Amino acid sequence: MAKTSVLNVMDHALVHALQIDGRASFRAIPDVLGVSEHTVARRDDTVWVRLLSGGTEIACGVQTGDDQDGDTLLLKKLPRTPRIVAMSAHATLHMFAGWRSRVAVLSEEQAERLRPARPYERAISLSGEDHALLRVLARDGRAGYGELV
Questions:
Q1: Residue 63 structural domain
Q2: Is the dihedral of CA 53, 57, 62, 66 positive or negative?
Q3: Tens digits of residue pLDDT in 92-131
Q4: What does the alpha-carbon distance between residue 45 and residue 66 come to, in Å, rounded to a whole number?
């Protein structure tokens, strides 16, 4: 029978931190979680991490420098990792943003410290030409250049 592992509270906190900001620095995360940098493993190739199946499966996205690095990671390193009982690899054609996981173990204050700053938003005003373009695009979002001019 295959061995399974259960994520501990720190693992869940790390996953939650990375869901809030997958690009958070490995200095910010330990500071927010109250642990050392050594506790938070350095994985420069990990793009995102998600818990699936109620926490019994972990999905992650990795980006490697070249095909050789990717082959080494997927064919040699990960399969030989003792706590991994099975794995599969898939190429991602497009990442859609906006999905949220149920993992939420950080306090609202901790989560706020990790959230990236919102881009500066300002009011804009549309000209008559802008409104004319929008009317054409509202009828046909694939309108060609000739129809828009």
A1: 9-123
A2: negative
A3: 676 566 555 556 788 889 988 888 877 777 888 999 999 9
A4: 11
